[in-house]
Specification:
about 50% helix; about 15% strand; alpha/beta
């Protein structure tokens, strides 16, 4: 795999836009970005149609639903996601070990039923929008990084394939959990970019050096005058890190 293809495989476009706009944007940046992240807004409005539309463009679909419910409900939902042939599916680590195991079981059974490779289940630890004050207000003790690591340990014990964390937690996760968990880092902001609601954002180079496998980028590409050039600049930074 060339440096360019390696960088492409490590980038996901957060397609948090109306579906037609998201599809057009992905077509523009596809030479530099392998994954399209279909989140709650798109999935609530369009359901599986949104997933299939990006797959038709050749995207690997990251279905970011952050499932969090009783184990049986999550198992059923994960099975439906697996049957769609998505590459990645998110669940909340805070749902607990039984729920996480149910998600892994469901996604594998759903994928098998349609002849797909099983998606990787990624457990969301602490949302990148949450500050130390936010973490304390929901009853989690310690700094966001400490709370995230406790949830990461639980999720890995439950058998998930990977974790969603801020770039700031990735290095500690790698140090404690080793090379196996697939680490996905949203909250990516190139140097000088507006952080918006991302309290714990970092640059692409920071995330890669910290051990991230997949970087999720949204607004720095959405709002760029030239989205492909913006994606190229991020891919170049990933390659050089």
């Amino acid at each position: 795999m060339t440096d360019a293809s390696q960088a492409r495989a490590r980038l996901a476009l957060a397609a948090d836009l109306p579906l037609d706009e998201g599809l057009r944007l992905y077509q523009q940046v596809a030479p530099q970005v392998a994954y399209a992240k279909v989140g709650l807004s798109l999935f609530v409005e369009h359901g599986p149609t949104a997933v299939l539309a990006f797959q038709k463009l050749g995207a690997r679909v990251f279905l970011d639903l952050k499932l969090h419910d009783i184990p049986n409900t999550v198992e059923l939902a994960a099975a439906r996601a697996g049957a769609l042939g998505v590459a990645l599916l998110t669940v909340h680590a805070a749902g607990g070990e039984a729920m996480l195991r149910a998600a892994v079981k469901g996604v594998r059974e759903g994928a098998l039923s349609k002849g797909h490779a099983a998606p990787q289940v990624l457990a969301v630890t602490v949302l990148t929008s949450m500050s130390a004050e936010d973490v304390a207000s929901v009853g989690l003790s310690g700094a966001p990084e400490e709370a995230a690591l406790r949830l990461a340990r639980l999720a890995v014990r439950a058998g998930v394939d990977g974790l969603v964390c801020s770039p700031r937690e990735a290095e500690a996760f790698r140090r404690e959990l080793g090379p196996a968990p697939f680490l996905c880092t949203p909250g990516i902001r190139p140097a000088g970019a507006v952080r918006g609601d991302q309290s714990r954002a970092e640059t692409p180079a920071f995330a890669v050096r910290a051990g991230a496998d997949l970087l999720v980028v949204g607004r720095p590409i959405h709002t760029a005058a030239d989205p492909l050039a913006a994606a190229q600049a991020i891919a170049d930074e990933v390659s050089a890190a």
